[in-house]
Task: structure prediction
Amino acid sequence: MGLLKLLTNDPLAFALVVIPLLFSIIIHEVAHGWIAYRMGDPTAKRMGRLSLNPLKHLDPIGTLMLFLAGFGWAKPVPVNFNNIPDRRKGLLFVSSAGIVANILFAFFALLFFRLFSISSSGTTALLVYYVVQINITLAALNLIPIPPLDGSKILMGMVSERTQYFLAHLEPYGFFIIIGFLYLGILDPLIGFFRWIIVTLIGILLP
Result:
């Protein structure tokens, strides 16, 4: 459902979805930039992208798509891997950072829910539910190894230079591949598979 329709039908649900969705995307992007900075690349920091201010990260088209179609994106945090001494390690750690940040966000939301014995029928419980679902889904989506998703960059950190070259040249067509997977019904099972892995991991850590 597009967020505009949700806003019309249920303003409270709209707020409970938009706020965690917005900050989940921002935390994902900031995590990329922060790890890159720690590994030697100051690009994101110099451009003011290590900030939780939404205005620093919103992409006009991605935001419009979010409201109209129910999915969207933020401006990718710029990373110059040439500034990172070990490029392979940079690809692995920087690309994994956003995914790990989303999984941790979901984990701590569930931990908060349990520690404070929140009523399962209240507004806070609903907010926690959206935080968990949004972050697990974002992490699962980005684990798919299709450029420009993070999974492709993680894969690039583990494969030969020839395969890296292939993936890099596939990136301009990545959006169309994702849309094609969505149309063919392949995308949802892929997301579901990675969601299962993440939920299983969280279940082990938080039985």
User: Anything to note?
Assistant: The chain is about 70% helix and 0% strand. The chain has one domain: 3-205. The chain has a mean pLDDT of 87.
